[in-house]
Structures are given as structure tokens and as C-alpha cells.
Amino acid sequence: PVSLMVHPSRTQHFTEASLSLSCEGQSDSTGWRVRRYTHSEKVSDCTSVWGSGTGSTCSISSLSTSHTGVYWCHILSLSLSLSLSLSFSLSFTDGDVILDSPVHPVSEGTPLTLRCLNRLNLSADFYKDGSFLQTQPAGEMIIPAASKIHEGFYHCKHPEKGESPTSWISVRGLRILIVNRLTVLKHVTLNIILHTATSPILFKCAV
Q: The domain containing residue 163 runs over which residues?
């Protein structure tokens, strides 16, 4: 099946950066186009209005908050049947901090990496269920082995930039499920790095 590939491969991006989108996964992706839904434009294909490209590729040279929306690949076959790829929500912020989290679903037992990206390197405080855990000068926190007691709501806080939105961490057997609760009024986000349920989780809150 065709998938929408995002480069850089993350769901959040800084404004004024660039972004590349492509429909990949089949030997012949001819006819597939990148499409999106935004509040301002509703549904639209990659065009000179918001992107440029040919065929199944699309590039945005200077991102803005208006590009925030849902993106996917689509094709209308000769039989007039419509095929769609999985869709992904991409957000673009002019704030100071973004969450570097994977665009595509993470398979059970494979590494999951989340990072707290910003323009500087600051220490970070880490919290679980609203309670302070520890301060890390490098903005990273490691849980040696994930278990059910580690389930909860996590966020990080930079001394100058404020605190991140909250992410729910659910530990289920050999996998961990991340549900990101994003808040546009905040400027900091939390990254979590998971290898397996019995290996360390790395929390990174980097500026």
C-alpha cells in the first residue's frame, strides 16, 4: 500500500522551516497526489498555493501555522474508485519548542523515540501525574525498565521556556502506547524514548 512519507519525519515542525511530502510504497506511484485538510482551505491538493512539486511529491519551502492540518495521499483510478493512504495530523508552530514524535504508527516491540526540541540547551524538570520527579541538566530522563507503575501523565518543564503539554504513557505487555495531548497555548513538549517494555525509557526535554 502507498503511505505518506514526511521529511523530516515528525508530526510537529517549526514555522519558516521546509517540509517534503511524498507518496511511497508501491513500485509505481503514478497518479497518487498529496492532499490535505486545513481549517482555512478545507480539502486541497498540493498546489502552488501552499506547496510545489510534481507527481506524487510535494514540498513546502517556508512553513507557517496555516499549514497545520491533516495530510494524506489519494488516487482516483480509471474505474473512478478512490483510494486513500493513512492520514496524519501535522502541526506547525511559531513557538519555541516542539515534540519530535514519529509520524507513522510504532510496531509493538520496536523502539519509540520522542524528543523535546528547542533552540537552546537547557535543563528540564520532569513530572508524572503532576508530581515532580527529577531535574536533568541535559534534558533527558531514563526509566531503567518500564512497568505498569510507570503508567501516567508526563510532561517536562524548562526553566525559561515554560512547560510542555502532557502525554499519557500506557504500559501494556510488550508495548507502550503514547497519546499526545497538545496545547497550542504552551511552548514546550515532552519526548519519550522506548526500546521494549523491559528496556529503558528515555525522556528528553531538549531546547
A: 98-204
Q: Binning pLDDT at 50, 70 and 90, where does residue 58 land? A: very high
Cis peptide before 144 (omega within 30 of 0): no
Q: How many helices (H) and strands (E) does the chain have?
A: 0, 20
Q: Check: CB of residue 71 under 8 Å from CB of residue 41.
A: no
* Predicted structure pTM score: 0.63
47 and 136 both lie in a single domain:
no
What letters, b where the CB count within 10 A reaches 16 and e where it falls short, cover 84-117? ebebbebebbebbbbbbbbbeebeeeeebbbbbb
For 72, the enclosing helix (H) or strand (E) is: strand 69-76
Q: Which amino acid is at 56?
A: S
Q: How many CB atoms lie within 10 A of CB 185?
A: 7
